[in-house]
Design goal:
115 residues, single chain, mainly alpha, 2 domains
Amino acid sequence: MKLKSLGSRLHNIVKDLARKYNVSERQIYYDWRNRKKWLPTLLSIEDPHSFFLDIISKHDELRKLAVLEFLKAPPGSTARIGTLRLIRDINMDLYEIVPLREVLLKIEKLEEQGS
């Protein structure tokens, strides 16, 4: 939505997001068409700071579970390789989530200005 508001063409945004998140362009278009269902939930978060901390906490728990599975798996096994990929994905998700905090803080400031 940020890129769209900055004047980027939807087609270019869809291509970039599909490549970035390894999903089909069709899925991105589907989510865009259905934003009326999920956008109000995102915008109605009452305590953005707590919401962000909850997300970080859940990702940390997933990472810990994945590390435990990695340690249990036999060396060189497909399970061990799979858990390494999972750990990488969890870390990349966390890297993507960090900017979410900034978005939530901006929403909070806008709400305060509107009051």
